[in-house]
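Run GNAT family N-acetyltransferase through structure prediction, thanks.
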Amino acid sequence: MEIRSTTDEDRDVFVDTVHAAFGRFAETPIEGGGLWWSALEFDRCLLALAADGRPVGTAAAHSFELTLPGAKLVPAAGVTAVGVLPSHRRQGVLSAMMRHQLAELRARGEILSVLLASEAPIYGRFGYGPATYTARLTVPRHQAALAVPRARQAPDAAVSGSDDGSVEVLRRAECGEILEAVYDRYRRAQPGALSRPHRWWALRAGQPPISPAPRYVAVHRDAHGVPDGYASYSIGEGNALTVDETIAADDAGFAALARFALGHDLVSRVVFKHVPAEHPLRWQFADFRAGEVSGDTDWLWVRLLDVPRALTARGWFTDGELVLDVEDPFLGERNRYLLTVRDGKGDCVPTDREPGLSLDVRDLGSIYLGGTAPSTLVRAGHIQAHRADAATLADALFRAERSPHCLHWF
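Sure, done. The structure for GNAT family N-acetyltransferase is below.
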């Protein structure tokens, strides 16, 4: 078997092969793009070829930026389009492609890669761990009333849910530049968020609101008239209003957009498709049981390629020292590191000191963004704590300023 990089000349072969791997047919190209694969970077795609030269597997990577705790930005390879023809599964094709891809990513100097897992059991063995989570919130229209905030605020403090801005309804085709600019500001401050390169918007590649699918967009403007949030939505079967994604600069802006959606006439229920963990929206309903949570699932999976550089790249919010014994079974590596955090900065160096925690690289990926507590994985039997206080210290060290969340689909 041969694994090789592709060029633009391989586009049709690559697209046909990945669709065949999933038993689907490629969509008919439309003018101006709009197909998920139109944003692929063909110098970052791989083809696996059988002995007779036939393509039997694919893998690709997008060039993104990932926002880390502390609003730190790092390049991240967004792994996608991974598939093997049904006739060649269970023959080592996938493992060979993933090993080849990880070697290429390291050679490029990238410190981590991310993906969205089509099936949860697949990617843990390659060192990826679930790191952000998302859920769907469904609210019947008759239970949609929001409560008046009860907290007393200082005169110069913003009340959560109060808003001096405005909401304007636009068609998707009218506000592309606004969406791109608002999303980019949002993702730079949100841990776990990925960039959406301009070419994605220009090609209309992906899911709404990037794609050309018809959508209305509620654009939120601050008190000065500057766009600082949006909600992309449509009304479908059963008069359900579905919000693809809600982007807001702060909780007040989010509440204003939620209030707009919940107050829409001739709607039976409102479905918010991507609600972050621990978001205050459920607590803002007059009826706490109004919001039904469903589809609670993993979203972004993280894989560290260079542990010391990755740990020093993110921001930290608690001082301390912790020795990590990290095993990478897929690449056959095991290393021990001393993580030292002082004044928001981390230092990570090899050490021979006794470990506080022993963990698989997939588990390090899960706790890296602060969305999974190390103590949870200790209790699950995946991370070994060698000292009584090691898990508590790790929880304090790895926490983020807020829950990581990723909206981008790729």
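The chain has a mean pLDDT of 95.
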